[in-house]
Amino acid sequence: MVYKHPSKSNIVILTGAGISAESGLSTFRDENGLWCQHRIEDVATPEGFRRDPQLVHRFYNQRRAQLKDVKPNAAHLALAEWERRWKEEERGNFLLVTQNVDDLHQRAGSRNIIALHGELLKARCSHTEKVMAWSEDLATDLPCACCGNPGAMRPHIVWFGEMPLEMETIYAALSECDMFVSIGTSGTVYPAAGFVMEARRNQKARTVEINLESSGSPYFHEVFEGKASQLVPNLANSIS
Ligand code: BV8
What angle do CA 119, 124, 130 make, to 5 degrees? Predict the structure, then answer.
């Protein structure tokens, strides 16, 4: 399939854990996924963090430490190359919105990224809300790099019940996009799961899903089932 885009064409990409699966990072809901090993309520909610901060720190420390052992795969690299080409040819806006908190898109060379659920390699001061780059373990007895209080730093991660980041920018891009591509997400968590509907509200957007198995959403014009490392380069190369 070849998509012939008009000279100016705005692209919005949404990625989920499935794009990082072939790099060796666990997804959430697949077999042996993260939610099989931990209850969401215990490790991915503010209540869980208040109840047992050390458990939550352990959950994110393990995932943060794993980042040095993995690298971007062909899907991450194809998105970075597509964005570079789009910018070089002045073809329009290219925005990558990721639900992932790993750093694989950044390491692959993607530039215009919104990590709407936060990032493992950042920490936030609970008193000042200041966000800091952070690649080490967090702990309840660790003096905060911002206010000095022990245990004041939390993962810069959006937990369930918390507001995702840069939502206004995302909705503005969805209202203007000519193509919306969802890659490697089960489409179970809102508001990200509703982005394809937002894109469809602007009649011009073509919506495409790439997933190991279709999420079943009725809002995609095309669905490609298979591995992101094969299907994302195919799609990116088919766009002229
Ligand atoms: C909010 C960070 C409002 C943590 C995450 C009832 C109805 C609707 C909504 C709600 C409701 N009750 C509560 C809500 C809101 C809630 C929600 O949606 N809950 C769900 C469970 C129903 N949402 C929230 O709380 C959000 N905030 O609504 O705030 C608000 C308003 C005002 C003021 C304040 C607040 C915040 C949600 C963010 C939670 N944080 N992540 C962390 O990473 O540890 S969620 C986490 O799960 C991910 O970030 C992602 O968003 C989500 C889904 O995960 P996926 O990435 O899709 O991964 P999954 O394993 O599910 O799927 C993997 C897919 O990949 C599969 O389809 C598989 O087939 C595919 N795949 C696998 N391998 C490959 C592949 N595809 C291609 N190639 C491969 N090789």
Answer: 120
The pLDDT tens digits for 20-78 are: 999 999 988 888 888 788 899 999 999 999 999 999 999 999 999 999 999 999 999 99
Q: Which residues are catalytic?
A: 117
Determine which helix (DSSP H) or strand (DSSP E) holds 211, and give its type and residue range. strand 206-211
Radius of gyration of the chain (CA): 18
Q: Which residue is closest in CA terms to ligand 1's atom 24?
A: 160
Measured by CA distance, the residue closest to atom 20 of ligand 1 is: 189
Report the C-alpha gap between 184 and 84 in whole angstroms: 22
- Identify the residues whose C-beta falls under 6 Å from ligand 1: 16-18, 21-22, 27-30, 33, 44, 99, 101, 117, 157-164, 184-186, 188-190, 192, 211-213, 215, 227-228
| Sheet-wide strand order for 11-15 | 113-115, 94-98, 11-15, 179-183, 206-211, 222-225
Give residue 46's identity as a one-letter amino acid code.
Answer: P
Give CA 227 to chain center in angstroms: 17
Kindly compute the dihedral angle of the four CA atoms of residues 224, 227, 232, 233, in this order, to the nearest 10 degrees: -120
pTM greater than the 0.90 cutoff: yes
Q: Closest Cα to atom 9, ligand 1: which residue?
A: 190
